[in-house]
Every structure is written in C-alpha cells, then in structure tokens.
Amino acid sequence: MSVRELVVLGTASQVPTRHRNHNGYLLRWDGEGILFDPGEGTQRQMLRAGVAAHDLNRICVTHFHGDHSLGLAGVVQRINLDKVPHPVTAHFPRSGQRFFDRLRYATAYRETVGVTEAPVDADGDLAVTAGYTLQARKLSHPVESYGYRLVEPDGLRMLPDRLAALGVRGPDVGRLQREGVLGDVTLDQVSEVRRGQRFAFVMDTRLCDGVHALAEDCDLLVIESTFLDEDAGLAAEHGHLTAGQAAAVARDAGVRHLVLTHFSQRYPDPEEFERQARDVGYAGELTVAYDLLRVPVPKRR
To answer: Would you place residue 77 in the very low, low, confident or very high pLDDT band (cuts 50, 70, 90)?
Structure first.
C-alpha cells in the first residue's frame, strides 16, 4: 500500500532547544523517501522516528546554513555503512559545492554507495519520475537558497455511473482504460481528470516570487515561520518569514494543509503561531510542527 506522509525530524531554527532538534524532514512518497535539510542530529532523529537509511532516495538541501545541513555528514556516512542498495541523489545549491564536499568527506569512512550529486543553479525541473516531477525555485536569503516542489502527473478517474449507463463492466473497463475506446464508447465519456497531488518545501526566505510559485495549489505546504508578526522587521533583516506571512501565502495559493515550522527559540508559546496564521484568514488544515510528528498528505480531491 502506498504511503504519502511527512515525518518531522526537527523544527528548531539556528540552535536546537530542549524540545526541538535542528531541522530535518522526510517525505514518504509511495515507495520513495526524500530527506530535506538534514540539520545536526538528524541521524539520531531518524532512529527515533523509525526512519532507516534504506528509506532514502533523495536528499534536498535548501541552503548551507548549519541548522539545515550539518547532519549531512552523518547521514551520508550512514547510507554507506548500511550499504543502501539503490541510487541516492543529492540536490543542493551549486554555489555551496565546497560546503557539500566538506560535509560529504568530513571524516574518514569506507565509501560503498555512490551518492549522485545533482546541484541546483536555476529554477526548473530537477528530476522526472513516473510518480512525480521534482522542481526548484530560488528564494531570498542572505546565502543562496532554493525551495523544492513535487508535482504528481494528472491521471484519470473512472466514473462508475457513466460506465454503468453505457454498459461497460468487468474486464471491459480495463480494456477501455488501456486502449482508449471500446466499441462506440470512448475513455473521455466515462472518466474525468484526477488532479495530481502537490507538495512544497519552503525554508529560509523573505517573501519573493519563488515562495508563491512553490506554494501554488499545494496539497501540503511545509514552510518556515521563524518569527511572529510583531518581529516582521527582524524577519526581513535576516531573510525569514513570519507566521502571518507564511499563512497569507498559503491562503492566496489555495493550500489545503499548511505546516508551520523552523521556530525561533525566543518564543515559548507555539500556539501563538497558529493564532497569527488564522488571523490572516487561512482556513485550511493547519499544523504547528513539533519533532517526530507525522503528517499525512491530504487525500485526493
């Protein structure tokens, strides 16, 4: 059975706290696992969350600040220690190649798995598979940063009432799906477009065109909300979003489920992030993330 869910490994910005590990997020998408922004301590958080190195197919790093990448060394070495049998691809800003190299080879270890490096240097498609297209969009942060988006191809949904009305049943349904026509009945007459699901991951950034493009029509949007709205000046200065800004993006983009994360240690009450997100009119499903949380991708429309 296919599983599509977000496993939250860490939610702290800049420094970990007693209750929040540095960043780390695993997206389970059917049979694949995509690890986003493995901050310090990610390998241990994976253990606590029941995530194995064998679950990883891709690693996506938004930028090379430590809270988003210092765990990369341990994760890459664990992939090699466990001799993961399938290809693993790493995406990261090309401008940070020297940081990736240092982290990949931070200490001596036996390299048994060829991690494929696929640096990002422009907006566009990074990978196209049968299950999704992985895209990148540039963000606005003091160091080069990219957000990531998964788009599932649209499919078809068969309509039982129309099939019955036209007398199509049993094995003929499969034949019609494969061949597109069955006698006088065409596939268009008995089906409708099943919209592919969309997921986006938006970390450290000010408001910019890339944020809106990544969030558009998402079923699940994971987005930083480092600051509360009263500290919007600090957010802009340091290249971050507030809770209200993140929620307004989700509201305008038609996001179905919004996950706020990457919280500054200065705020003791996480519920205030939810209050400010609701204050701007976001009416969809809303989660203020905490470590080891599991968030299912919403069911198809």
So the answer is: very high
